[in-house]
Write a structure and sequence with these properties.
CATH topology of the largest domain in chain B: Rossmann fold
Distance between the termini of chain B: 90 Å
Oligomer: heterodimer
Shape of chain B: elongated
Radius of gyration of chain B: 38 Å
Helix content of chain B: 40-55%
Number of helices of chain A: 7
Helix content of chain A: over 70%
Mean pLDDT of chain A: 87
Low-confidence stretches of chain A: none
Low-confidence stretches of chain B: 1-34
CATH architecture of the largest domain in chain B: 3-Layer(aba) Sandwich
Strand content of chain A: under 5%
Order of helices and strands of chain B: HEEEEEEEEEEHHEHEHEHEHEHEHHH
Number of domains of chain B: 3
Largest sheet of chain A: none
Structural class of chain B: alpha/beta
Mean pLDDT of chain B: 84
Chain lengths: 214, 431
C-alpha cells in the first residue's frame, strides 16, 4: 500500500499528462493548469521540512561542539533575524522589506555583493581550468587547444589585428562542428529524458520512492 | 446681332463640350472659390470603409482564439491606422450612447493595423483581451485617414461560437514518434526479460564509481554527493537520485561517511529517503546518519559557497556532481580539484559539460547520466530501456542521413526527391 498508492498516482497522473499534451480543449487545459498550480503548494510545505533540517543539523553541531561549530551560528542567526526584520519589525523602526529598512540594507549590501563575488570567481576559475586543461598531451588535446585558441582570439579585437581570418574561422567552428555536437548531445538527452520518464510512469524506475529498483 | 454671328460660336462650343460631357456623364461641379484666399478648393476624396470582415475559429486551440481578417479601407495610401473593435454578440439593444453598450459589453479595441500591415490577425492572443471559449462576438473595423476622417465598417456578427478542438492535428508527427518509441521500449523490455544478453558499451565514469567509493573508504574521508541544483521536476535530478540510491548502498557496506547537500527542499526529502533506504538494503540501518543529508540554501551562489566550504574544511576524497547545474559548475569542480578529490560529474546541460570535462576526472555526458542507473543495477527492464533509446536514435539517424543524402542529390542534380521527408523534419509544431 505504501508503495502501490504512490505508484498508481504517478502512473495515472503521468498517462493523463501525456494525453493532455495532444488535446488542446479548454477542459484539458484546465487540468494542466490545476496540476501546475499544485506544484508551488507542495514546494512550500517541503520548504518547512528543509528549514527544519537546516536548524537540526546546525543545532546538533553547536550542541556537540563539532568541528567549526561556530560557523553554525553564522547560519542560524541570519535565518531567524531576516524574517524578523522583514515581517515582524514595524516599518516605523526600519522594518519591512521595502527600502529603507534593515532587511533591504542587509540584502542589498551584504547578500547581493556576496553573490556577485561568488559569480566573479568564475573568471579566475576559467583561467585556472584553461591553464590545466589546454595542454597538448595527446592528438585530441592538441586539437582542443588549437580550436580554443582560434575561438578565443576570434572573440577579441586583437584577434582581428593578428589576422582577419581568426574571427571567421572561430565563427565557423562555433556554427558548424560545435553546434552539430551540441545537437547530437541534445538528441540523446531528449531520448534519455523520455525513456526515464516512461520508466517512472510505468513503475520500472522506483528509486524516487526510496527503494533501490525493487 | 445677326443670327449667324450667334449660332457659329454656339456650335463651336457645343462641338468642344461633347467629349467633356461624354467622359463625366455629368457636368463637373463648379470649383468653389473661397472668400479668404480666393483659391479653388479641391473636392474631398471619397473614402471607402473597411469591409469584408471574416472570422473563423482558430484551429488546434482551446476555443480561445479566432482568426480575423478584413479588407482594408480605401484609398489605402491615405489610411493612417485601422482599429478592430470587438464586443460580445447580441448586445445591440443595450443602453449607452448610440446603443453601443456599456462596460464590458462595450466595444473594445482589440487590435490595431498600421498603414501597410497585413489585415489578418489571431484574436485572443493578447492577455488583456481574452476570448471566452464557447462565446460569440461582433466585430467592427474603424479606419482613420490622414486628414482625420474616421469611417467604420458594418458590424459583423459571428454566427458560431468559438470551440476547442479535441485533438491537435499539428502534433500527429509527435504522436507517431511517441508511438514508435513506446513500441521499441516495450519490445526491448520483453526481450531483456526473456533472458537475451544485451551489450552496453563500457562508460568510464560509471565504472569508476566503485573505484572512487573505495578510494574514499581507504583514505577514511567522506564522499560528497551533489544531486544538482534543480527541482525534482527535472529528470536529471531524478536520474541523479537513482544513482545516489546505489551509491548509498555501497557506502553503507563500506561504512564510508556520506555528505549530500541539497538546494531544493523537495529534493532533500527524496534524497533523505533514498539514502535511508540504501542503508536499509545494505543491512546497516543503524549506521545511517540523518545529518548526512541536509538542506543547505535555496540561493544558487550561497549553495555553492556552502558546498565549497564543505570541500575545503572536510576535504572529501570523492566528489560526485550528478544532476542539473548552471554557472556554478566550474566553481564547484575547480574547488574540488584544488582540494585533491577524485571527481565524477554528469549533467545534461550541454553548456556546462565543457567545464566538467576539463576539471573532473570522469564526466557522464548527456544521456549517459540517464543510462547510469541501468549500468549500475543491470536489471533487465532498465537495460531494455537503454536499448530502446538506442534503437530510436538509430531510427532518427536513418531519417537524418536519408534527408541529408537526398538534399545533396537535389543540390547537385536539381531534383526534389524525398520532399515529404524534408517537410516532415522542418515543419514547426505550432502550439
Amino acid at each position: 500500500m505504501k508503495r502501490s498508492v504512490p505508484l498508481a498516482i504517478v502512473m495515472v497522473g503521468g498517462i493523463l499528462m501525456i494525453i493532455q499534451y495532444f488535446i488542446p480543449h479548454q477542459y484539458s487545459q484546465a487540468v494542466f493548469d490545476t496540476y501546475t498550480e499544485w506544484g508551488p503548494i507542495v514546494a512550500v510545505f517541503a520548504l518547512v521540512l528543509g528549514i527544519g533540517s537546516l536548524i537540526r543539523v546546525h543545532s546538533h553541531k553547536i550542541r556537540r561542539r563539532a568541528k567549526n561549530w561556530q560557523y553554525s551560528y553564522a547560519v542560524l542567526i541570519p535565518l531567524f533575524a531576516m524574517p524578523i526584520f522583514g515581517l515582524i519589525l514595524p516599518t516605523a523602526v526600519a522594518g519591512g522589506t521595502d527600502s529603507p529598512s534593515v532587511f533591504d540594507f542587509l540584502f542589498m549590501n551584504v547578500q547581493v555583493p556576496i553573490q556577485a563575488t561568488m559569480f566573479s570567481l568564475l573568471a579566475f576559475y576559467i583561467a585556472s581550468a584553461a591553464f590545466r586543461a589546454f595542454r597538448a598531451k595527446s592528438a585530441l588535446a592538441t586539437v582542443l587547444l588549437i580550436a580554443a585558441v582560434i575561438v578565443m582570439l576570434g572573440q577579441v579585437p586583437i584577434g582581428e589585428l593578428l589576422g582577419s581570418w581568426f574571427p571567421k574561422i572561430g565563427q565557423w567552428i562555433l556554427r558548424y562542428p560545435n553546434a552539430a555536437a551540441k545537437r547530437a548531445i541534445a538528441l540523446g538527452v531528449g531520448f534519455g529524458i523520455l525513456a526515464t520518464q516512461l520508466k517512472i510512469i510505468f513503475g520500472v524506475e522506483r528509486n524516487w520512492l526510496g527503494g533501490a529498483g525493487e | 446681332m445677326r443670327k449667324h454671328q450667334v449660332a457659329f460660336p454656339a456650335l463651336v462650343l457645343l462641338i468642344f463640350s461633347v467629349p467633356v460631357l461624354a467622359q463625366t456623364g455629368a457636368p463637373p461641379a463648379p470649383a468653389a472659390v473661397t472668400e479668404e484666399s480666393g483659391q479653388e478648393e479641391m473636392p474631398a476624396p471619397e473614402y471607402e470603409p473597411p469591409g469584408g470582415i471574416v472570422v473563423v475559429d482558430h484551429p488546434n486551440d482551446a476555443g480561445d482564439q479566432l482568426d480575423v481578417s478584413f479588407e482594408s479601407a480605401r484609398p489605402e495610401d491615405l489610411v493612417m491606422i485601422q482599429q478592430v473593435f470587438r464586443r460580445p454578440a447580441g448586445k445591440l439593444d443595450l443602453s449607452g450612447p448610440d446603443g453601443q453598450g456599456v462596460g464590458e459589453d462595450s466595444w473594445q479595441a482589440v487590435y490595431s493595423v498600421a498603414a501597410g500591415e497585413a489585415t489578418f490577425f489571431v484574436d485572443g492572443q493578447d492577455p488583456d483581451y481574452p476570448i471566452e471559449p464557447g462565446s460569440s462576438y461582433e466585430y467592427m473595423v474603424t479606419a482613420l485617414f490622414m486628414d482625420g476622417t474616421e469611417v467604420s465598417s458594418d458590424v459583423y456578427a459571428m454566427d458560431f461560437s468559438s470551440v476547442g478542438e479535441i485533438f491537435h492535428t499539428g502534433k500527429v508527427r509527435v504522436l507517431i514518434a511517441c508511438a514508435i518509441f513506446l513500441i521499441l521500449i516495450f519490445y526491448y523490455f520483453q526481450k531483456a526479460q526473456s533472458g537475451v544478453e544485451m551489450y552496453l558499451r563500457p562508460i568510464g565514469g560509471i565504472e569508476a564509481i566503485d573505484e572512487a567509493i573505495g578510494r574514499a573508504t581507504e583514505m577514511g574521508k567522506p564522499i560528497l554527493y551533489v544531486p544538482g541544483l534543480s527541482t525534482i521536476a527535472d529528470v536529471a535530478t531524478i536520474a541523479s537520485l537513482t544513482i545516489l540510491g546505489r551509491v548509498a548502498k555501497k557506502v553503507a557496506e563500506y561504512q564510508t561517511p556520506l555528505l549530500v547537500p541539497n538546494r531544493d527542499p523537495i529534493v532533500y526529502t527524496v534524497a533523505d529517503e533514498t539514502v535511508k533506504q540504501g542503508y536499509l538494503e545494505a543491512g546497516r540501518p543503524d549506521a545511517y546518519d540523518p545529518d548526512s543529508v541536509f538542506f543547505l540554501t535555496d540561493s544558487q551562489f550561497a549553495f555553492v559557497a556552502g558546498v565549497n566550504g564543505i570541500m575545503m574544511r572536510d576535504k572529501p576524497a570523492t566528489n560526485f556532481y550528478l544532476g542539473m547545474f548552471w554557472a556554478e559548475s566550474l566553481i564547484l569542480a575547480e574547488t574540488g580539484s584544488l582540494s585533491g578529490a577524485i571527481q565524477i560529474a554528469g549533467t545534461d546541460a550541454t553548456v556546462q559539460l565543457p567545464f566538467f570535462i576539463t576539471t573532473c576526472d570522469y564526466t557522464l555526458i548527456g544521456e549517459e547520466l540517464y543510462a547510469a542507473s541501468a549500468y549500475l543495477g543491470r536489471e533487465p527492464k532498465q537495460l531494455g530501456a537503454v536499448k530502446g533509446q538506442d534503437a530510436m536514435k538509430a531510427v532518427v539517424m536513418t531519417f537524418i542521413t536519408a534527408g541529408f543524402v537526398a538534399g545533396m542529390i537535389d543540390i547537385v542534380a536539381g531534383t526534389h526527391i524525398l520532399g515529404w521527408l524534408r517537410d516532415l523534419v522542418t515543419m514547426p509544431i505550432v502550439d
